[in-house]
Design brief:
Helices cover about 20% and strands about 10% of the residues. The termini are far apart. The site of one zinc ion (ZN) has 8 residues, from helix 1. One of its GO terms (cellular component) is U2-type catalytic step 1 spliceosome.
């Protein structure tokens, strides 16, 4: 075999001889006792074209065999799985991640420049503890604002469907005689013009022209988010869709929501299938809202998250309601005289508030202070609102907190 010119520059000692591949959870499969075939320097890396230690395995019963596509250095430079080339932290395409984190590294893509770059990276990576990614990603901290979007886009667990066998080409032509025994999928192929069927490893690696990424990014722009209420004293979240009484216990809720900060009070309304989580600080409540909205799963149940709204506001809104609100919490009264009026904040005319809201599509949630929405208030509980069960708002439980903070937006 003749080697390409640039490969001559290599000292074979630089070739990696990895003990175990760098893989994402999905590619690894569900079985912890995995059998892998290891082929030392058995394959050329798709990106740097150097031989690397290749692995081949079947990630679970009925799954197709998987193999590593890029070498460990190339994988570390981008912090990606050696097989699917998705980001290891978020399980998302490089293009999506780099877009969210606003990074771009103009890696030299071929020839001596690329070889030189990869060699340098390799040296730099060897000097680290092996857990820090290289490239432009190394400059990005975990608290980067883009991380939030990535967390929302990310799958919360492995996605084994991606390991399914490829579609049987004989079946497509109506010629497969293997029937049940056929290891490939007997399914109608998706439209050949479907961009998803035209993926290219190198584009995926460099984060360019990746049809999957474009699809995910489009989804990201339509992704609903939960806007914190302007009233900074609100530190309570409503948690809905908890299912029949006993499904999710107070302890389950505590265990889940404690990760975002200290909980002052947690009240579960088993009959209503909802709960209110009152945090000691606004920061915790905001973090909990941001991180759990649209993605909180407790005991495999997707629960709904909304902001709670103080009593006075709720009362004000109720004057506008034509129908009685069916499922207001009854177990959690707060004496009216305790609803504070510091700085006159609770004395706004009723129309200064709209119901704590979720658009029918769960769009951006906002609490405007000045005018009721066109066409009047959305009435929680009516089918048009599409957020059944989430129309309950809970008075922030600690009156001393209300108005206690100086950062009230007026
Ligand atoms: Zn490589
Ligand atoms: Zn993978
Ligand atoms: Zn077949």
């Amino acid at each position: 075999m003749s080697m390409s010119k640039s490969s001559y520059n290599y000292n074979r000692k630089g070739w990696e001889d990895a003990e175990f591949p760098i893989l994402c959870e999905t590619c690894l499969g569900p079985n912890p006792y995995l059998r892998m075939q290891k082929d030392t320097y058995g394959k050329e890396c798709t990106i740097c074209e150097r031989p690397f230690t290749n692995f081949r395995w079947q990630p679970g019963k009925g799954a197709r065999f998987k193999t590593t596509e890029v070498c460990q250095t190339c994988s570390k430079i981008k912090n990606i799985c050696q097989t699917c080339l998705f980001d290891l932290e978020f399980g998302l395409p490089v293009q999506v991640r780099d877009h969210a984190l606003k990074i771009s590294d103009d890696l030299p893509r071929q020839g001596a420049n690329r070889d030189f770059f990869v060699q340098n990276q390799e040296r730099a990576l060897a000097a680290t503890d092996g857990t820090t990614p290289g490239g432009a990603l190394a400059t990005v901290g975990a608290d980067h604002p883009g991380s939030e979007m990535l967390r929302r886009l990310a799958r919360t667990g492995p996605y084994y469907k991606r390991n399914a066998p490829h579609i049987c080409s004989f079946f497509v032509k109506g010629e497969c005689k293997r029937g049940e025994e056929c290891p490939y999928r007997h399914e109608k192929p998706s439209d050949p013009d479907d961009p998803l069927s035209q993926q290219n490893m190198r584009d995926r690696y460099y984060g360019a022209k990746d049809p999957v990424a474009e699809k995910i990014l489009n989804r990201a722009t339509a992704l609903p988010s939960l806007q914190p209420p302007e009233d900074a004293t609100i530190t309570t979240l409503y948690v809905g869709n908890l299912g029949p009484a006993g499904t999710i216990t107070e302890k389950d809720l505590n265990d889940y929501f404690y990760q975002y900060g200290d909980i002052r009070h947690l009240s579960l309304l088993p009959q209503k299938g909802c709960a209110f989580v009152n945090y000691t600080t606004r920061e915790s409540a905001e973090m909990a809202a941001e991180r759990s909205f649209n993605r909180a799963h407790i005991k495999n149940r997707k629960v709904t998250i909304r902001w709670g709204v103080p009593h006075a506001q709720r009362q004000a809104q109720s004057e506008y309601r034509v129908n009685p609100v069916p499922n207001l919490p009854t177990a959690l009264p707060i004496p009216d005289e305790l609803v504070p009026t510091k700085r006159g904040r609770m004395e706004f005319a009723p129309r200064d508030f709209m119901p704590p809201p979720a658009g029918p599509s769960g769009g951006i949630l906002k609490v405007p202070r000045l005018a009721p929405p066109m066409g009047g208030y959305d009435q929680p509980g009516t089918s048009s609102s599409g957020y059944e069960g989430s129309s309950i708002y809970y008075p922030s439980q600690d009156p001393e907190r209300l108005g206690a903070k100086g950062d009230v937006i007026d």
